[in-house]
Amino acid sequence: RRFSVLSGSRQVEEGTTMEKVSLNEAARMVLVEWSGGGVSRFPYVWLRDNCQCPQCFHPESRARLVLLADLDVNVSPVTAEIQAAGSLLTVDWPDGHRSQYDWHWLKERCFSAQARADRERDWHRKTQLWGAELAHNLPTADFPALLTDDHALYNFLFLLDAVGLVLVQNIPCDVGQLEKIANRVAFLKLTNYGREFVVMNKAHPSNLAYTSAELGLHTDLPQYYYTPGVQMLHCIEQAEGEGGDNILVDGFNAAYQLKEENPEAFRLLTTVKVNYWDIGMDYHRFFQRARQHIISITDHGEVQSINYNDQTRDSVLDLPADQVQPFYDALKAYHIIMYLPKNCVRIKMEAGEMIAFNNTRTLHGRLGYSLTGGTRHLQGGYLDWDEIYSRMRVLKSDLGIQD
Length: 403
Hints:
The protein is α+β, with helices and mostly antiparallel strands. It is built from ten helices and 22 strands.
């Protein structure tokens, strides 16, 4: 199966050409009739603003050269005609400038309701919700293939976007492996814990993860407004005996369950902003602070991201006193759903494995472990979604992957 995400282009049926063009001065639009049927309307000001000639649009940097200060937003064409056997629209403007537009370029930017709906779908995550059953069919990837095979890399990134959790196998048990895979995508995100961080029991820890204690389900670094998009945890050495297992939960799935079972709790967690903070010394001295919705939703009411972390949730709660109890009731309701056995995947990584997961969706925790069971050594790092999506678009174009 071939996968896709946020595509920037789409196929247009062969043989489609522009058959007729006219100017509608009342609507201030150029009307294009297509040989395959249908009429597209292109506003005058939009056509002038998006002229693709070298004077108006830099061909190498692909940046607009005509600034808004120089754009007459009330401009009207002098003439518009179809040329090159219906494949080119030519528009002449009052100042003598001539613009030409390729039919395929125009089709991709059509203003019709159907075209806009098609483009809107490109922006939607292709989300697959999951619970405990995912443990029996956990998405996996092969580390050597990710370093050499672009198709394997694309499918790995697609699964991170759609499922939010991938187990990567066959990794050397040495530090520095995260940077290799990060460099195949873009680069590791630098935080106050560095580009990579070591997760093991430490004296004077700057984070609770650097102990052997149990970690509750959480997303990392909600105290950052620009929260890391994907977290990678590479197991270099695993403690023997009981404990050290990772617990993973689909925060989106839990949020939708909350919405169904307790709409008021869902409303509170999507409207009340929570203060998160972290202070200390690691890669540098830091004092991070941000306000986030625990559950963020889109304009259409779809769950977009989760920011949940009991460890860094501030004691400052900017609510009237009589609204505090309802907020805690809502928080507890979401917490209970997270920990339902039907929602939890439990993984104890072996040395040479890595879990990669969507840090804005997949909550992760850890069972406490005994220090008598040997050393538990994980290497961690982050990627940003902007860079992941960029890499996916490049791979999709290079590999010819279609929707």
